[in-house]
Design goal:
This protein has ten helices and 23 strands. By secondary structure, the chain is α+β, with helices and mostly antiparallel strands. The longest helix is centred in the first third of the chain and has 21 residues. The chain binds zinc ion (ZN).
Length: 494
C-alpha cells in the first residue's frame, strides 16, 4: 500500500521534470492522468494549490505568471542556463563565508536538525531547495490536510513507535497545537532515496507566511518553524460594478481576501447586495508577498461612489481597535447593521396608512419587510439579549431582543428559530437567530422587521442610529495624517 503511494508519487514527479514541454496549465484541468487513483490524489493537491493560488492572485497577471515562473525554474536545471546561475552561486558562497565569519563564536544556538542535514550549503544548488531541503536527495509527495486530521494520525500511517510521536509532539508544541491541523493546508512528505517507507521529513504549512518542518530521522527527531520573508507592495484598483462586486473581483482576478475587507468597511453604510449597475469604486491596498509569492492583500483605503453618494473609508489601527474609519474619524462599523437579512429586497416599508395585504383593511405597517428565499439566515442587527423567542398565531415563529436601554428589535415569520435562541441568551451583531419563512400571517417568505426606540415603534430604515466609538482624541492628529496620505493615493488613481 505504502509502496504504491510512493510509486504514484514518483510518477507525479516525472511530470514535473525539466524535459516536459511547456504546457499551459492555468487551471490544471487538462492534465491527463494514467490511473484513476493518481487522478484523485493529484486532483486533491491541485485543488489545494488552486485554492492557495486564488489566495495569491493579484492584478490579473499573477495567476498566469505563477505557473510559467515554476516552469522556468525547472528548465534552468538544464545545462545551458548554468551561466546564469554562476553569479548567483558565487553570491551564495560569498554569503555563506560571511555568515561563517559573523557567527564564528555563537555556537550556543540550539541543536537544529534541519541545518545539520544540509551542512554543505555552498554545494547545494538553491534551485534544488524545497523548504530548505535538497529535494534531489528525496522523493517528495504533496498532500492536503483532511478534516479533523491530527499530527498523531500522520504518524500512525507509518507506524512510528510511540516515543517518536511523543518526542515530536513536544517539539512542535511551541509552534502549533499538535492535535489540530488546518484543513486543506498543504503538507509535503520527504522520503529518502534509499527506499525507506517512512518519511524523513514532513513539512506542514499552517499558513502562507511560515512552514513547520518535522524531522523524523530517529536520532534527530524535532521540529522547526521557518518564517517566510514577507514584503508588501502597494497597489491600486478602480472598477465599475456591472453585475455585482464579487463578479467584478473575480473577473479582474483580485485577491479573494479583498472582498470581505471591502464588505467589512462598507457593510454599515452601503447595501451592496442590491447596488444599481454603475457604482464606481477605487481601492488602495497592499499585495503581500511571502518568499516572493503573492499570498494576500490588505485593503488600506477605498472610495465608493453610487448615484447618491461618495463614501470613503480608511484602515487605521488605534492600538486597541483596528478597522475602517470615515474621513471624520468615525468608525465605519456602526452599532446597527443595515438590514437583518443579507440578500434581501425591501418588499414593504414602514407605513402608517398601509392597506394590509391579507386582511385588506387599512392598518399601519409598523415594520420593514425584507423578502428573501425561505431558509435565508436572519441576523441580529446589533449585540443584544433575547427577550422573546416563540410562536404566535399572527407573528409565526419570532424573536425579539433588547440591545440597550434605548433600542429593541423583532423578527417575524421565521421558518425556524435558530437552536439555542431563548429568552436571556446574549447574541452578537450579525449572529444568525433564525431563518426566513412565512409562518403566521404572511403571503410569502419574508422577515417583518420591527424596531423600537424607548418603547415606541419607529422606522428603522430612516432612523439616524448612533455611531460606535470614534478614534480616541489623542490619536486624531495621527489619523488625519494617515488619512490625507491615503486620500492623495486615492486621488491619483485614474
Ligand atoms: Zn411586516
Amino acid at each position: 500500500m505504502e509502496r504504491k503511494k510512493i510509486k504514484i508519487l514518483s510518477n507525479k514527479n516525472k511530470d514535473q521534470q525539466p524535459d516536459a514541454t511547456p504546457k499551459p496549465r492555468p487551471d490544471g484541468k487538462e492534465k491527463k492522468a494514467s490511473t484513476q487513483k493518481k487522478l484523485s490524489a493529484s486532483e486533491k493537491i491541485k485543488q489545494a494549490k488552486l485554492a492557495r493560488k486564488s489566495k495569491k492572485t493579484d492584478d490579473g497577471d499573477s495567476l498566469k505568471s505563477e505557473a510559467p515562473k515554476k516552469k522556468k525554474r525547472r528548465r534552468q536545471n538544464s545545462d545551458g542556463i548554468l551561466k546564469k546561475i554562476a553569479p548567483l552561486l558565487f553570491i551564495t558562497v560569498l554569503g555563506y563565508c560571511a555568515y561563517q565569519l559573523i557567527f564564528w563564536d555563537t555556537s550556543d544556538s540550539p541543536d537544529d536538525p534541519i541545518t545539520k542535514e544540509t551542512p554543505d550549503k555552498e554545494k547545494v544548488n538553491t534551485e534544488n531547495l524545497l523548504y530548505g531541503l535538497d529535494k534531489t536527495m528525496y522523493t517528495t509527495e504533496e498532500r492536503v490536510v483532511q478534516e479533523n486530521q491530527t499530527l498523531q494520525e500522520f504518524l500512525n500511517e507509518w507506524r512510528y513507535p510511540r516515543e517518536v510521536s511523543g518526542k515530536l509532539q513536544t517539539a512542535v508544541a511551541p509552534y502549533m497545537r499538535p492535535a489540530v491541523l488546518k484543513e486543506f493546508q498543504l503538507y509535503t512528505l520527504f522520503f529518502d532515496n534509499e527506499g525507506s517507507e517512512q518519511p524523513a521529513y514532513i513539512v506542514y504549512e499552517p499558513d502562507n507566511y511560515s512552514y513547520i518542518t518535522f524531522c523524523l530521522i530517529p536520532e534527530k527527531i524535532g521540529a522547526i518553524q521557518t518564517k517566510r520573508k514577507v514584503k508588501n507592495t502597494p497597489k491600486t484598483f478602480t472598477g465599475t460594478i456591472q453585475t455585482n462586486i464579487a463578479d467584478l473581483h473575480s473577473r479582474k482576478k483580485l485577491n479573494y481576501q479583498l472582498l470581505p475587507q471591502l464588505e467589512s468597511a462598507l457593510a454599515w453604510t452601503v447595501d451592496f447586495y442590491h447596488l444599481k449597475p454603475g457604482a464606481k469604486y477605487k481601492m488602495v491596498f497592499d499585495e503581500i508577498f511571502a518568499d516572493g509569492e503573492a499570498v494576500g492583500s490588505k485593503l488600506q483605503a477605498l472610495e465608493f461612489k453610487t448615484d447618491k453618494e461618495t463614501i470613503r473609508a480608511f484602515f487605521f489601527d488605534d492600538g486597541v481597535n483596528s478597522g475602517f474609519f470615515d474621513e471624520r474619524s468615525r468608525p465605519m462599523k456602526r452599532a446597527f447593521l443595515k438590514s437583518p437579512v443579507k440578500y434581501a429586497r425591501i418588499s414593504s416599508k414602514f407605513n402608517l396608512t398601509r392597506k394590509h395585504p391579507v386582511l385588506g383593511e387599512v392598518k399601519p405597517h409598523l415594520g420593514t419587510d425584507y423578502a428573501a428565499p425561505e431558509g435565508t439566515p436572519i441576523r441580529a442587527i446589533s449585540d443584544g439579549v433575547i427577550t422573546i423567542a416563540t410562536f404566535k398565531k399572527n407573528n409565526g415563529n419570532y424573536v425579539k431582543m433588547k440591545h440597550d436601554k434605548t433600542y429593541e428589535s423583532q423578527y417575524l415569520h421565521m421558518s425556524k428559530i435558530m437552536d439555542g435562541i431563548k429568552p436571556g441568551v446574549r447574541v452578537k451583531q450579525g449572529q444568525t437567530i433564525g431563518f426566513v419563512g412565512s409562518t403566521g400571517l404572511a403571503t410569502g417568505p419574508h422577515v417583518c422587521f420591527r424596531f423600537w426606540k424607548r418603547g415606541k415603534q419607529i422606522d428603522f430604515v430612516n432612523e439616524r442610529l448612533p455611531d460606535s466609538r470614534p478614534i480616541p482624541s489623542n490619536q486624531t492628529v495621527e489619523f488625519i495624517a494617515h488619512r490625507d496620505a491615503l486620500m492623495r493615493k486615492l486621488g491619483a488613481i485614474e
